[in-house]
Amino acid sequence: MKNASTGFVVDTSKSPYAKLFPIPIKNVQIIDEFWAPRLKIVREVTLPSQYRLCEKTGRFANFRRAAGKEHCNFQGLFFNDSDVYKWIEAVAYSLAGVHDNVLLNLVQIVIPLIMAVQDKDGYLNTYFTFERRNERWTNLKDMHELYCAGHLIQAAISYYRFTGDRRLLDVACRVADHIGRFFGAGKRLGVPGHPEVEMALVELYRTTGKEEYLDMARFFIDNRGKGLVGGSAYHIDHRPFRELTEIAGHAVRSIYLNCGATDVYMETGEKALLDALTKLWSNMTNRKMYITGGVGSRHEGEAFGEDYELPNVRAYAETCAAIANVMWNWRMLLISGDAKFTDVLELALYNGVLSRISLDGQQYFYVNPLEDNGHHKRQNWFECACCPPNIARLLTSLPGYFYSLSKKGVWVHLYASNIANVVVDGMNVTITQKTRYPWEGDVDLVMRLEKMAAFSLFLRIPNWCQKPLILMNGIELSGPIKRGCYVEIHRLWEDGDTVHVSMPMFIEQIIANSNLIENNDKVALKRGPIVYCIEQVDNPNIDLKNLILPAEPVLEAKWKPDLLNGVVVIEGEAFLIEPIEQNDNLYFSLSETKTKIRSVKFTAIPYFTWANREQGPMKVWIRSSTFLSSINWKN
Amino acid sequence: MKNASTGFVVDTSKSPYAKLFPIPIKNVQIIDEFWAPRLKIVREVTLPSQYRLCEKTGRFANFRRAAGKEHCNFQGLFFNDSDVYKWIEAVAYSLAGVHDNVLLNLVQIVIPLIMAVQDKDGYLNTYFTFERRNERWTNLKDMHELYCAGHLIQAAISYYRFTGDRRLLDVACRVADHIGRFFGAGKRLGVPGHPEVEMALVELYRTTGKEEYLDMARFFIDNRGKGLVGGSAYHIDHRPFRELTEIAGHAVRSIYLNCGATDVYMETGEKALLDALTKLWSNMTNRKMYITGGVGSRHEGEAFGEDYELPNVRAYAETCAAIANVMWNWRMLLISGDAKFTDVLELALYNGVLSRISLDGQQYFYVNPLEDNGHHKRQNWFECACCPPNIARLLTSLPGYFYSLSKKGVWVHLYASNIANVVVDGMNVTITQKTRYPWEGDVDLVMRLEKMAAFSLFLRIPNWCQKPLILMNGIELSGPIKRGCYVEIHRLWEDGDTVHVSMPMFIEQIIANSNLIENNDKVALKRGPIVYCIEQVDNPNIDLKNLILPAEPVLEAKWKPDLLNGVVVIEGEAFLIEPIEQNDNLYFSLSETKTKIRSVKFTAIPYFTWANREQGPMKVWIRSSTFLSSINWKN
After folding, report:
1. Which residues in chain B are closer than 8 Å to A550, comparing Cβ atoms?
2. ipTM score assigned to the predicted complex
């Protein structure tokens, strides 16, 4: 058993095929104006409110019932246990960073509730008790028992790592051992209908050192594609995992499975797994991902669609899928140290994840359109409430994503003002970041060392950054600084060394691959890592769908400290088409249509802040005359 | 019992609230170059091939099995009986027009198969026999028993009307009587999960005069919205029918139900029904219908989507839904004599229906995209084969849609060379149409009368026709001829009177309502009633999605007798954007994208002929610089 103080989210510190090793959450203190207030809201508002909602919706009652302490019917959906587990995981990460008596007391009420439910044989699931006891493990395809077990294991590991309290970890090991007695080589064949347990089992292996947990994770990956859960792409059971080339099926299931396979790879180094993962990643990012990092475009089956099937109004883009996207890219990054994974992680984090929770930390999106007529709004909770605690656990674990270590030194993945304590070759190094990121691209790092030491500092230059510049103690680094990669500064570091990273943020007009036909002749506005949208409330007299950006628009970024908790907006001029003599018909002859065009000013806001004020239409992809107007002068 | 020789599809001849009355199919002889060859193919190729497929797929075997004549398992889906019934109906319409020994012999083999299955109590469904006998009428929501009964009744009526043979009609009456003993006021409550029996029962009332059948149809409409089949919009059970304002749910179910309600209205005149139907029709045509007349845009649930949810690539637009659209508009027309219904009927007929069957009459689309990457192709048959015999019965009944009678005279709805015999005030009138419609808009009508008679001739002027002209015996009708309505010519008709209708066909660029955002900055080409598309095979070196029509394109219509069995194509010049330095990425910064633009010639073909040659991309909505280029000169 490892030391309880490691406090890693994904503990690759002993993984033979990981390139990067983690830094404990507690060692990174975020002190900026962007993330720190958000994490505070999660801690003080979101997590307590989710506790209340778990109580109100019977999620805790289900545990009391299963333990024989309360007489009632099972409440809600059969996988509701998992929401409680994700809440515990979120609380554990939060406690790792900041002591909070409220959360500590609440979680210490919940842990015994769970422990009391476990059967002598290790089984633990509040749905399959009493009248449903005989149905245990009879329907892996639909009933999410392994999924719930996975979340229990993850919660237990986190709680153990951040509190040292191993009670829930012991429960989780008994659950895993119970699963291991049923399933495995020479025993019963089976795979989970909803992957998730795979990454949990690998993490349990990392936590306990017991190889059978790694074997079980591999077993659940090896046996996919055999029709054990129906053989559909929805269940990612249509083909053996190693033969997959295109990402398909239920998006969260699909990416959770990829997370598990990536975790297995980091322990086994099996090339076939990495090959499949690489293909799946390329297919996803080049064909099936929204500009926000959201994935799973199709409502039907909450699934990945065909290549380039990325509707804006009818985007599904489940919140949990964007979270899963962060989780998977983090793991791919740990394998490779390749900044292309960090780019997607960052994109999904600022746009795909952050947009899913309201600024007040109490309302959530489940479905995430990129264009809306004004009816879509965040909810307090959902009958299927997978997303809210999933956001919470991602955000509370965020400090763990900022840095890594490798054999050569320290890696800086994300930028925000923070103080990080890392141990390089046994020596404490303190790194201070000062920046207004993501609103400005200047970052000042100060290195504090006990003594001089030679190692490398790897600085991520995002791929969006067209003109990066690095100053080492005020002197520009020689040679071109490439973007979309990590710049290695190897030197004999001295106490007080400073590094300045300049990543100028320009307002960029993004166009989509022309195969993404819905976005033909449209552009999205992006600045740094932030994707923008236009929302009705900022543009009261403009019919957003008829706003057209000219070929070379005048666009200006402005810091608005009082708007939406402080954002950089983009202001610009564009054209508005006003159709006249257009009745309610769906189709018109162009020859009978008259329009007038006028110039208007408009304001765009970060996509992640939309739907926090009065409801109204919103759109990310704005019509543009870029290509079409050029026809005229070339004609 | 009415005379067996009436031969109507929808027999409103005694319906008190119908404005228009039918002309028997056999009285209209289509002799043109467009429809006549198609109807011949349906008769000689389609219907015999469907007979073989019904045999091959066990549909006939299911009847033999249920009659105890063959020992096998039930084959296929539980509603497969309905395909046999639709085939019979198609054959009956076909036989009404043209004697065909092959079809007559085949249908006479099938009729006894069906008769042999009927139980003494009147029940008839091959799925619910033997081991499933006890499940009869236990699941109206899912099991399509009333749906199959409806198709049996329709087949029986048609076969009786066109052959005088009442054996199957007697069977159908016993089925209906059996249903009536189970369901009705004071008996069991219930509605069909899949509407269809409603219109069948009204037609059975019209055929037999028995009011209980009309009462049953009304009962099945009255009891919707009570949750009897689950209460979902999918089943159109979310709200009482008379309270519906937006068309929703499974498209075929929804429109079949509307057909039934329209039929009930024609008998009862209940205003609340007509009010609901009017709202549903407006919502459908102004918000949820493709430019082709296809409906039901959403894959999920084969359903109507939200307002303006009309994706091109991911259109569902089931074949049967377009057919249902024709059926419903026909009924709305019979109520009203309003040409807006004929406009939609014609649109759906030439584009939404005709595109669903291959030129050789043997392959069918089930799903009908308006843009495709080249993978979509017609199939010989489907496991769920509702569409193929549905197309067949619509096309074989087509002669019945050309004319109607009203108290004031004769109505001309559709144009094609034909000879029609109608009876006006007891006198035989022969109308001869000569035209190259739908390729040219000139129609010559010659009236042959036994003696002079005063009545009105109502000529439909399609709404697409911007400059209609009518010559009566060579002299232009005075006053403006309005389009989108029926022009009434009341006179004392003499033998040999001629009417010339001139409906000049211009190539029109159609734009969609700007709320249909996917089609912003796109146009579709249309000429007369025909919607065009561009297909890769005609435009070999053009990336269709990057083809852009200039603001005022040069477009030319050309008759191509050897192409696709003879079509008018549209040839034109447009611009092609060729992105360079564009890698495989999904998203690019515009500032880093370079494009070149060149002028190209392109050819568009009628949408209904697509996918009849080598596979390749196709699209209906073409990018256009119309609005955007105007920005420059107005700027």
Report:
1. 631, 635
2. 0.93
